[in-house]
Write a structure and sequence with these properties.
The complex is a heterodimer. Chain A is 75% helix and 0% strand. Chain A is mostly helical. The longest helix of chain A has 38 residues. By secondary structure, chain B is α/β, with parallel strands linked by helices. Chain B has a domain of 191 residues: 3-Layer(aba) Sandwich (Rossmann fold). Chain B is 30% helix and 23% strand. The longest helix of chain B has 18 residues. Classes of the chains: A mainly alpha, B alpha/beta. At the A-B interface, helix 9 and helix 10 of A face helix 2, helix 3 and helix 6 of B. The structure holds adenosine-5'-triphosphate and magnesium ion. The site of adenosine-5'-triphosphate has 15 residues of chain B, from helix 1. Chain A: One of its GO terms (cellular component) is plasma membrane. Chain A: It is found in: Cell membrane. Chain A: This is ABC transporter permease.
Amino acid sequence: MSRYVIRRTGAAIMTLIAASIVIFAFIHLIPGDPVYVMLGDGATPEQVAALRDRLGLDEPLVMQYLIWAGNALRGDLGVSIFFETPVTQVIAEGAETSILLASVTMVWIILIGVPVGILAAIRQGTLIDQGLSGLAMLAASLPTFWVGLYLILIFAAGLGWFPSSGYPSIFEEGGLVNLRYLVLPSLALAAPNAALILRLTRASMLDVAREDYIRTARAKGIRPTRVVLRHILRNALLAVVSAFGFTFAALISEAVVTETVFALPGIGRTVVQSILRRDYPVIQGVILITVCLYLVINLIVDLSYRYLDPRVELE
Amino acid sequence: MLSVENLVVSVRRGPEIVRDVSFEIAPGEILGLVGESGSGKSMTSLALMGLLSPGIDITGGAVRLDGTDITHLQPHQRVARNCGKVAMIFQEPMTSLNPVLRIREQLEEAINVHDPRAGPERARELLDMVRIPDAGHQLNAYPHELSGGMRQRVMIAIALACRPQVLIADEPTTALDVTVQRQVLGLIRELCDSLHMGVLFITHDLGVVAQLADRVAVMYAGKLCERADVGPLFRAPLHPYTNGLLACLPDPESGNAAFETIPGAAPRPGAIPEGCPFSPRCNRAQETCRSGPVPEAHGPERQVAVCHFPVRQEAPA
Ligand SMILES: Nc1ncnc2c1ncn2[C@@H]1O[C@H](COP(=O)(O)OP(=O)(O)OP(=O)(O)O)[C@@H](O)[C@H]1O
Ligand SMILES: [Mg+2]
């Protein structure tokens, strides 16, 4: 147990350090003086001096990094240049929307991708399989914004079943019912990823079904459903679980588009606006948090892999 | 008693892979099935098991176990109908066990199906039967923690959990090293005797057959070309193909280093010659061999060869 966990965690921390250096360096890669870039042309010398001081730009580079990283470790990501409020607060405002959006999307991906993939595999070669695989191909190839716009056209503008944009917090009036604002965006975001998981589940099931040990299982005389669930599915899920980490990475970038299409007050929108405003501390903060999340999720995937696959221990 | 009568196995919309194969296996008897690669040995055994892959079917003949027709039944259907059982072990012990389940789980799964009332000690008992030392500990192991020989023993234990009348072993020792191979062969012989179980033992290795089997069937291009008890077959093969195979065996006495081979290659399904399928490679073949049905030639005891011009050795004076 322990050695594997320690090694995986150590690797994640090393990655985080490397990523943080890149994120830190980003502000110094801006051509010209970052302070002028951030403040724009109309800045007064006092404002420039104040920002310079606040960012610690006069310290040696290594010191600057250590101070920045040290602050980040304590949860201080600096102050937004546009809002003049702590970056963590700016991010926190979009966090509820983004976290809920990602979670609901993940639920769709698992709920649709895995069972439908199993169905397609069991019915391999039939019309059901061909229909589902064709649909998956289509869903995987359509751009998220396009799917989003069509969902709005049909289910919001046309049928009026769901709201087309915005998201009031579940802590405000309406409570959990406000989640209906996230149905269409999460479906748009889930579509291409669920399609990928579907195809992966199907392919992986068919691969495993050809293994010798599946023939052994059948030879025992156990029921076919049990062969599928206990022997084929269990092994096929190994490949699917390891794909969830990558799915998450895809979600992050596609979420920016989705939040824009559905006008959701999430972190994706914060990022887009911060880039337009050249609010570098906020951009840095969002990227750092995203990297952390990504590493944590992949660590969880790796560790849960151990419980699914006893062979991992030896490697 | 397992009896296979005129079995035909074909690829759907394709050639026949097994053609008109008949043999019997009595309880406590080991039948060795030999033949070149691709001659249809595995297809025959999977057909007996009811485990042919989709797209390959039994298109003729019957498989009976103690009189009950089990021809088209898959293993779980045989369990449901409570008819006789055939169990099987495979060539690759490395890939024949599910890598994510403990030995105990894989063994108990078979026990639960065939012996629902057996207690938890049954799994241990089975491992003891196949001579796995420290059975209690090995039950909790995963397949990757065991050696090839141990895994093949586990496979045998799983097969025995099905309480089979007949055990099919498809090249069970090809992937094992020589000493382990001998142990596993010894174990199969012993279980066959003590459990009074019929065994169909498939191999390329005539040496193993000579040691282990009671009777032999020789397969060529999907057909049996000769069936006999081990003694007569090795002493005086009737079919020129069997004769050729035996000539390929190294003979330590003559110290002959030059390897004999049968000229040519075995035909592939779908491109099998008319008449006797061996005729193009046979040095005794004549015009009659190349078309029409081939008669059976009988030798002493129960020896039968499908041949126009069987090899008749001069009886030693
Ligand atoms: N799915 C398939 N479709 C068509 N032909 C097949 C298929 N699987 C096997 N065959 C053919 O069936 C023939 C018999 O194969 P089989 O596996 O029974 O041979 P074998 O005697 O067991 O050979 P080996 O000693 O190599 O195991 C081979 O010629 C093979 O090419
Ligand atoms: Mg074979």
